[in-house]
């Protein structure tokens, strides 16, 4: 198994700084999600780990062995890793078994060994018996499993997943989340998963690294990033919380002149509070607001409220509230976002 270390890793494309001095360690057997908006550098980091790009500065190590730096590169085929692309990258003229077997044929393995490994890989992704089928006749989720089986067939220690669910519908995405979770449990491989979808990252990974404009914003367990974001970018990108301005006096935090119990460090005379919908409830007395809009979500009505200072919060109400209606709400939990 493999531990991956990135040390002040930097990548430039001309004047564009795609990755800026990223440093973190991916422990053996970990499942890490690289999360962030388009253009944040997450796919570039994946390509640097894979060996498709060479660092402009810094280095990459696998189990203490340097595999990438500005002066030296270990090619992808010598890094003992597999990668699954968003586009699947399957050959339409080959059947399922031939697609999965291709990496082994390129290595010159015998037919018996190839058949055994292909069968085991297809069984691992729940495609046993699909070997002779044409890939053109498969669903999107099945094609994704074929691509995953091809990645697994070589017995790789590292699995890189580049937006693997982006082309699937909601139901297939949920199905593939279960496949990835079982795969991690069975193989014990070090998995790096690139996504812009925070729900995928929070559901799958045991560690999430949030990036923005090439810079690591925060790294930690999903629960930590959700409950204790390190800055406003993470607070706004992870979850559906909203930031509002509060006042601080003698260590007490108030919002609209009402005291608020908070978590986090109180500093200065002002604080940015992260309020999550699940921690807000309508109340007979509390913080005054006016209804802006309500949208049915199945579990209730996602309702936007506006405070007297113009800032807005989101909560889930049991009934549809008409725009303009005055209400009050209570806060069960609030996090002070570091400045």
Description:
- The chain has 339 residues and is of the alpha+beta class.
- It is 25% helix and 35% strand.
- The strands form four sheets. It has a six-stranded mixed sheet, with helices on both faces. A five-stranded antiparallel sheet has the order 13-12-11-14-20.
- Helix 2 crosses helix 3 (111-124) and helix 2 (96-106) runs parallel beside helix 4 (140-152).
- The radius of gyration is 24 Å and the shape is globular.
Indicate the topology:
Elements: E1 4-13, E2 16-26, E3 31-35, H1 42-50, E4 57-62, E5 65-68, E6 81-84, H2 96-106, H3 111-124, H4 140-152, E7 158-162, H5 170-187, E8 190-195, H6 198-204, E9 207-212, E10 215-220, H7 222-227, H8 232-237, E11 242-249, E12 252-255, E13 258-259, E14 270-275, E15 280-283, E16 287-296, E17 301-306, E18 312-317, E19 326-331, E20 335-336
Parallel strand pairs: 3-8, 3-9, 6-7, 7-8
Antiparallel strand pairs: 1-2, 1-4, 4-5, 9-10, 11-12, 11-14, 12-13, 14-20, 15-19, 16-17, 16-19, 17-18
Counted by DSSP, the helix tally is: 8
If strands are numbered along the chain, what order do they take across the biggest sheet? 6-7-8-3-9-10
Overall pLDDT metric:
92
Radius of gyration: 24 Å
Task: Report on the biggest sheet.
Answer: 6 strands, mixed
State the low-pLDDT regions, or none.
Answer: none
């Amino acid at each position: 198994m493999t531990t991956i270390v990135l040390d002040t890793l930097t990548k430039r494309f001309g004047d564009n700084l795609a990755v800026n001095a990223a440093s973190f360690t991916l422990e053996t057997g970990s499942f890490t999600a690289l999360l962030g908006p388009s253009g944040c550098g997450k796919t570039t980091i994946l390509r640097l780990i894979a060996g498709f790009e060479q660092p402009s500065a810094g280095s990459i190590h696998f189990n203490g062995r340097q595999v990438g730096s500005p002066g030296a590169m270990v090619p992808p085929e010598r890094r003992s890793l597999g990668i699954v692309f968003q586009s699947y990258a399957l050959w339409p003229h080959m059947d399922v078994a031939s697609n999965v077997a291709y990496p082994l044929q390129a290595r010159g393995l015998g037919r018996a060994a190839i058949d055994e490994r292909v069968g085991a890989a297809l069984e691992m992704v729940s495609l046993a018996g699909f070997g002779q089928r044409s890939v053109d006749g498969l669903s999107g989720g099945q094609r994704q499993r074929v691509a995953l089986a091809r990645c697994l067939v070589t017995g790789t220690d590292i699995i890189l997943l580049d937006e693997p669910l982006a082309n699937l519908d909601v139901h297939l995405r949920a199905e593939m989340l279960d496949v990835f979770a079982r795969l991690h449990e069975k193989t014990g491989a070090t998995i790096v998963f690139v996504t812009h979808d925070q729900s995928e990252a929070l559901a799958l990974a045991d560690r999430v690294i949030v990036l923005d404009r090439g810079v690591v914003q925060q790294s930690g367990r999903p629960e930590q990033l959700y409950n204790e974001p390190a800055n406003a970018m993470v607070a706004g990108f992870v979850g559906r919380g909203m930031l509002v301005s509060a006042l601080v006096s003698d260590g007490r935090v108030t919002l609209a002149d009402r005291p608020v119990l908070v978590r986090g460090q109180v500093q200065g005379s002002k604080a940015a509070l992260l309020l999550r919908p699940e921690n807000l409830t309508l109340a007979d007395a509390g913080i005054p607001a006016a209804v802006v809009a309500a949208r049915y979500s199945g579990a209730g009505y996602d309702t936007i409220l506006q405070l007297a200072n113009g800032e807005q919060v989101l909560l889930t109400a049991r009934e549809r509230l008409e725009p303009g209606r005055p209400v009050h709400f209570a806060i069960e939990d609030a996090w002070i976002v570091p400045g």
